[in-house]
Design a protein that fits this description.
The chain is α+β, with helices and mostly antiparallel strands. It folds into two domains: 324 residues, Outer membrane efflux proteins (OEP); 78 residues. It has eight helices and nine strands. Strands 2, 5, 7, 8 and 9 form a five-stranded antiparallel sheet that branches. It has a two-stranded parallel ribbon with strand order 1-6. α3 packs antiparallel against α4. The chain is elongated and about 145 Å long.
Length: 435
């Protein structure tokens, strides 16, 4: 029997150790790095950058020599005949074949040259878009991370309150058993304990949902267990004094690069008005004979030519000019959108600074309130033990202390969310990776 108990203890220790090792401590920096490597948005943005290089190769290929080989083999079942005087002659042989190689090289084609510039600009556009996607991903991860953190703090507050109320209930239960307490007081504390347990379960469920939301935000499988490290929210009052240069924002850089692409698109439309010049050359064989080309009566005369091909647009009914005007409208629309983007970014920056200042004031107030509520709870608890305070006053003091803690946690979360927005407004979201 003793041996069985020892084995059970060892197995329990083994399983608990395995569970503890399976728990993965996830800091904000770790969560962001994981998301940048595994989230679908980040992967797709990286693939777009890779694909942009293939687009450049495609356009560059159109400017290089184009070499093609061709061939044909034909058996003429009925050979055409022609009458000359009283005689009829067959015009051809039963078998005919052609084989050749042709080369075409663009010498001047403004559309191709503009396409090369546009392809390089497209690669730059997707590189900036990748940075923007990463910044948006970092913002979402930080928000999901702090949501989990706040709920964890709320759960800790409930556990502290539940532990305190349970101790009070046990004391009252002992007094009732000894005939020195009122049963109604015991019933009221039991109700308070049950309410706290119910609220705790609600928070536990909410925490599980938020942890799943965090895993989804970073692209982590749902079956992996994670826990956030034990740390406090750092508050930096000086962050609201930092200045912002809207021109350095990724959104602005992306809009400018888009305008650059639209300008190249306009140039491509203008290129349709330019002449096109290309060099063409070919070499081949044009064979004929009475037998099959291989092993039969067959001749292979050679053919070859070199020439220039010139195309000069003269009149297209005004369609080219209309396309140019449409491209110009797109540029002007993009410029209007850029100005509006700058205005929106400035607004977001001012709002984030205002939220930071308000959050700092609220945090300071709530911290003082937590300390005061804690003192009131301690004094009320002592008074209750000495018969100088009622149970209602004690329960009210416990609730007030829990409310003060929750209000402080909410204020800290609001500060961190505003801090992320301000860091974003300053174009420094990637600094969260290296904190």
């Amino acid at each position: 029997m003793k041996r069985i108990r020892i084995i059970a203890v060892l197995l329990a220790g083994l399983f608990s150790a395995s569970y503890a090792s399976a728990q993965e401590v996830l800091s904000l920096q770790d969560a962001i790095k994981f998301a940048l490597q595994n989230k679908a948005d980040a992967k797709k943005a990286a693939l777009e950058v890779e694909n942009a290089q293939y687009q450049i190769d495609e356009v560059r290929g159109s400017a290089l020599p184009q070499i093609n080989a061709s061939g044909s083999l034909k058996y003429n079942i009925l050979i055409p005949e022609m009458a000359i005087g009283d005689n009829v002659f067959k015009m051809g042989q039963p078998w005919s074949s052609t084989a050749g190689v042709s080369l075409n090289q663009q010498l001047f084609n403004q559309s191709v040259f503009t396409g090369l510039k546009a392809a390089n600009t497209t690669r730059e556009f997707y590189a900036i878009n990748k940075s923007l996607t990463e910044e948006q991903l970092i913002e979402r991860v930080a928000k999901a991370y702090y949501d989990v953190f706040q709920t964890q703090l709320s759960l800790e507050t409930i556990d502290i309150n539940l532990n305190s109320t349970t101790k009070t209930r046990d004391v009252i239960s002992g007094l009732v058993d000894a005939g020195l307490g009122k049963k109604i007081d015991l019933d009221r504390t039991n109700v308070a304990v049950n309410n706290l347990k119910a609220n705790r379960q609600i928070v536990v469920n909410a925490l599980e949902l938020q942890e799943n939301a965090l895993k989804f935000a970073i692209g982590m499988p749902m079956d992996r267990d994670v826990q956030l490290p034990k740390e406090t929210f750092d508050v930096n009052a000086g962050i609201a004094l930092e200045s912002m240069n809207v021109e350095n924002r990724t959104e602005v850089l992306l809009s400018k690069k888009q305008i650059e692409l639209l300008e190249l698109n306009k140039q491509a439309k203008i290129a349709d008005l330019y002449p096109k010049l290309s060099l063409g050359a070919d070499f081949g064989f044009s064979g004929f004979g009475k037998g099959f080309p291989i092993g039969g009566d067959f001749n292979w005369p050679k053919t070859s030519s070199v020439g220039l091909n010139l195309s000069i647009p003269i009149f297209a009914g005004g369609s080219t000019k209309s396309r140019i005007n449409q491209a110009d409208i797109q540029i002007r629309q993009a410029q209007v959108a850029l100005d509006d983007t700058k205005l929106g970014l400035s607004l977001a920056n001012d709002n984030a600074k205002a939220q930071i200042k308000n959050s700092l004031l609220t945090i300071n107030t709530n911290r003082s309130n937590v300390n005061l509520a804690k003192e009131v709870l301690e004094d009320t608890n002592n008074n209750y033990k000495n018969g100088l305070a009622t149970l209602t006053e004690l329960l009210d003091a416990e609730n007030a202390y829990a409310d003060a803690q929750n209000n402080l946690n909410t204020a800290l979360l609001n500060y961190k969310v505003a801090e992320v927005q301000l860091i974003k407004a300053n174009g420094q979201l990637k600094s969260l990776i290296n904190e």
